[in-house]
Design a protein that fits this description.
- By secondary structure, the chain is of the alpha/beta class.
- The protein has a domain of 173 residues.
- The strands form three sheets. It has a six-stranded mixed β-sheet with strand order 1-2-9-7-6-5. A two-stranded antiparallel sheet has the order 3-4.
- α2 packs antiparallel against α9.
- It is globular.
- The N and C termini lie far apart (37 Å).
- The mean pLDDT is 92.
Length: 252
């Protein structure tokens, strides 16, 4: 019998992740469907990301700061250029990284590149994947400019993706929900979700993405909700230690 879905919510992104990760790291099997939602009480700084990266490395997990860049690079969120040019900064950043030998995704294209509809390879050659969906969301919400409940969404899969029973890309869908008095929230669906290596970085990346779109559309960002259809981790003891370390961070 499939276990019932479970949900975790906190005003702080960090505390919401700690609660969910501890559930995944419990001796029993985690629920097959898990929902994690958070408000905006914790807005990561460059120093807090460095602290998280250090703690993750000490426990043998991927760096949350690096994982978050796969959804929206910090250089994009910090750019003061027009939206299309800011997105281009991110694409070029990944291109330069590949030229130095970096590899960002087993599926070639990062989530950011899938949303932006383009990528730049190690030789500096630009590949057009599809329309720029991220720019389309910003433009649509800005042009529509109504204070009415609505949603724009981006499917992450590309026409070149085949069917797989396991593996990535795990992020399937991102929805940008306009609601209330010029509020904007983000919801995301993951087919599987590694709560040791990926989930914290993904939450940070989605938070950054939501803030980026909210700023560009003159709205107030209100939070993130993530649905994980198969939450898991490789190493429950290590994950419990990681959550303890994060809980001990200044400002937790």
């Amino acid at each position: 019998m499939t276990a019932r879905p479970v949900a975790f919510h906190d005003a702080s992104l960090l505390r919401a992740w700690v609660q969910a990760a501890r559930h995944v790291a419990s001796p029993n099997e985690p629920s097959f469907v898990m929902i994690v939602s958070t408000d905006v009480a914790w807005n990561p700084t460059a120093q807090s990301l460095r602290n998280l990266n250090l703690l993750a490395e000490q426990s043998g997990w991927e760096r949350p700061g690096t994982v978050s860049d796969m959804i929206l690079p910090r250089v994009v969120s910090m750019s003061t250029r027009p939206t299309q040019q800011a997105i281009e900064v991110g694409l070029r950043t990944f291109g330069r990284g590949r030229a130095r030998g970096a590899r960002y995704s087993g599926w070639i294209h990062t989530y950011f590149e899938r949303m932006a509809g383009a990528s730049i390879d190690a030789s500096g050659i630009r590949h057009e994947l599809r329309a720029n969906k991220l720019l389309g969301v910003v433009d649509k919400l800005s042009l529509w400019n109504r204070n009415v409940e609505s949603a724009c969404y981006v499917h992450i899969d590309l026409p070149t993706d085949g069917f797989r029973t396991r593996g990535g890309p795990c992020l399937q869908y991102v929805q940008f929900r306009a609601h209330g008095d010029r509020q904007l929230s983000v919801a995301a669906l993951y087919r599987a979700h590694d709560y040791g290596n990926k989930a914290l970085g993904n939450l940070i990346g989605l938070d950054r993405l939501g803030r980026f779109v909210a700023t560009r559309t003159e709205r107030t960002f209100s939070g993130v909700s993530v649905v994980s259809l198969h939450p898991f981790c490789d190493g429950k003891t290590r994950l419990r230690q990681f959550t303890n370390d994060v809980e001990g961070m200044p400002g937790f």
